[in-house]
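yo

u said u wanted the structure for the complex thing, so here. seqs first:
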Amino acid sequence: MPQLLLELFSEEIPARMQAGAARDLERMAREHLAAAGFLPEALKTFAGPRRLTLVVEGLPIAQADRKEELKGPRVGAPPQALEGFLRKAGLTQDQLVERDGVWMAFIEKTGRPTPEIVAEMVEAIIRGFPWPKSMTWGVSKLRWVRPLKRILCVFDREVVPFAIEGIEAGDITEGHRFMRVGFGWGGQPFKARDFDEYAKGLLEHFVVLDVEERKARILEGCKTLCFARNLELVEDIGLLEEVAGLAEWPTPVLGDMDPVFLDLPGEVIRTSMRTHQKYFAVRKPDGEGLAPHFITVANVQAADGGAVIASGNAKVLSSRLSDARFFWDEDVKVGFEPWLEKLNGVTFHAKLGTMKERVDRIVALAAEIAPLVGADVEKAREAARLAKADLASQMVGEFPELQGLMGGYYARAAGMDAEIADAIRDHYKPQGPSDAVPTAPLSVAVALADKLDTLVGFFAIDEKPTGSKDPYALRRAALGVIRILLESNKPFALTNVLAFAAMCHSEMPPSYPLSNEAALTGGSLPDLVPFFADRLKVTLKDQGKRHDLVDAVFALGDDDLVRIVARVEALDGFLKTDDGKNLLAGYKRASNILKAEEKKGWKGEGVAVLPPSASEPEIALYDAVRLVQKPLAEAMEAENFTAAMQQLAGLRGPVDAFLDSVFVNSDIEVERNSRLSTLAAVRQAMNRVADFSLIGG
Amino acid sequence: MPVAQSQDKPQEKPRSFQDLILTLHNYWSAQGCVILQPHDVEVGAGTLHPATVLRALGPKPWNAAYVQPSRRPGDGRYGENPNRLQHYYQYQVILKPNPPNMQDLYLGSLEAIGLDLRTHDIRFVEDDWENPTVGAWGLGWEVWCDGMEVSQYTYFQQVGGLDVSPVAGELTYGLERLAMYVFGVDNVYDLPFNDPDAPLGRLTYGDVFLENERQQSEANFHGYDVAVLKRQFEDMEQQVPLMLARAYQGKSLVLPAYDMVLKASHLFNLMNARGAIAVAERASYIGRIRDLCKLCASAWVEQQEAA
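structre next:
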């Protein structure tokens, strides 16, 4: 079946937009083709530095003819109804046929030729393309990400004839911007009537179409270069994506870095290489340190083998690293105290005061948290005081992503306590799901203080995340707190600490924008604990835990995440056993009975006494509940939730026997009361472990 | 679409800083640009020359190239930094409407100054340009040569808060940096200003500008009287609307008014270098200059469309 090939050729498309553009092109093409009634066999898109390409396999040469049946008004309906129908359908009365007392129209629609539909589709795609940013150029009224130069559009090896704002669709594209067959430089046009000719032509003209191939080519080239010099590539997926969008003929070139810069921290060298120059770093295979080289990914395979490119890039890198060295030297000279002074003048958030005020709060909060996580209080104060100072350093001004890390380096350079230096370095962690959590107690204290202050502050000013919007990364902060606490595995009363954090906001000087009242109860603060519960649910769900179990445990009002997770795990294990499943079923039956009776006014007051008439199952359950109280309480006290579940498991048999043979709603008041009280005791005992009514299934 | 002419042999390299400028002048002159001289009011960037800011607006075609001395008072380093200057040169090209082959024309200019495009790695790297003080923005690229930014390439979308239609393409070459690359020099002051074999004696960039960097740096950081700068800024600010209100032959005096905006902008830069502008005040000063610039831009467009 015929094939459609479309290429939109433009000036250089920003690398970061290419992957999204390929997806959007695919989606739009699919939608348009589906709307026209086409179901192509295959559809694929490509995006690169200068072109977006679409290839669709298996389109018919025209839409199928369609027969439509239109049902009109009843025969004998008012003339207005008939006229309305005719107008809407574009018919005259002689085209109508009477069937079962109703006017019917049978219309045959001839399918339109596919090229017509393709031309409309391309125009709609170009005019409606959702570029993150687009522009106009010259005298054209068109909008595209950068000037659009050519449209190649062939269907079934024939040019689809159309033009958009003076750009005529054709069967010609062009190759690499510089590399060409023969002498000189400059893009060479060539003809392509189908995808095979197109792909072959591109390769001959030094263009790798598929981004995955470009990436593979870059990685392979880098590894070959490294192998020859006995080096190892420092892999960087994000950088690979980016450079694959910057070159049509990506050609890695190894350059030399002046080894005098190797005494700079490796992260500084790597960040400078990556952010400013988009170079890969390399290291020696034996050690951890970087090697004095870099790899740049050029767009051309230079006539001289890349010597000029390597030396030019080396020079640029030297001047970049000289800047970094200058920042380092200046920063070491200036040091923490002057930076802290500067934070006075830096606004953290218009409604949450200055960075200095924030630091004061983190200091107080870290000191409060320190004993809970086994850290030294005075060291926690000092680490928290210094943690944000590097924001005023020149290096972090240049490379914001090195915040914390530089503080750690500078603290060491200044001869500070190693634990404090580590806490400064690690207090932003974890910065994402793949980032490690700090485990050293001092680092834990400062990391928690940092995040909790952020959460309390932004909730107090009602800046909680909504939907996909989370500009202050509060979900990440809460998740960070959760991960740190679970990893530390220490008891931690979250509500108390949150209350303390709120108090820190309320005790700011009078100039502080947030009022005392707002700091303590304002905005969305009441939503903060449920927010943590939600994040915890997400975390546990990601680990395969049921969210209703989390609800069941949370309902008890516990705020210790470590304990909650232990309970959820014990509960999960218990409910997988036969006893657990049956006990849950029993609980539900019992609680339904109780609910019904409570509605009718039963209050369960007074001490339940077994009447002399009590049957065997009644006595058995009555005793079992009484006997389980003490060991259950002990297990809960010891936070041994598995043991608590085992105690509950012992209730299963008596509960089942009771529910199977005892008629609760006896006419004799004493019997009824006793039986209901026994069930209430069961419910109460079980609810000490979790709110079983919230558990599904 | 025209494809760049291939050059089978590399061009003769320029031999000096001034030769580089002359080569660019010849190249852009041959493309049909008017070759202008610098604007005689201090500006922070070549873009601010009325030949760009004002001429980019309005319906009339305009193609020009010029060198513009650019002053960045805060960047002065007393002549001690090999890359940073408070006074340096930008080479500016403005093409309205931008021709379809503008990228090729630009690459041709690199070849003209001696860059062999078969051995260098030229890249167009996304960079969305904006200048909030004149309410201008556009899309384009930084152009990299072997990892070094050698030019800024922008399709203007708005200037003075007004849509640019037809679109003007702007090229800005940082002349010192480009020259350092072309001549393989690591310190700007070592650049040959004239031909190294000049019969009347060779002069370096340092011979011409080092003393100026030293004195101006001291003046920028410590010399200017902040109170005077502030007063002059306010004077200019008040004068702009008055000048615009005045007319000659039925046209308001937008060109002199715009010069006053430029003066205000430079005075702001000087105050900034003196550390006289608090972080919180910065945005409001920039906003004040932008408002003045918008007044001029609107008046200019009105005149252009009327003509």
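Chain A touches chain B through 50 residues (CB under 8 Å). The mean pLDDT of chain A is 91.
cya
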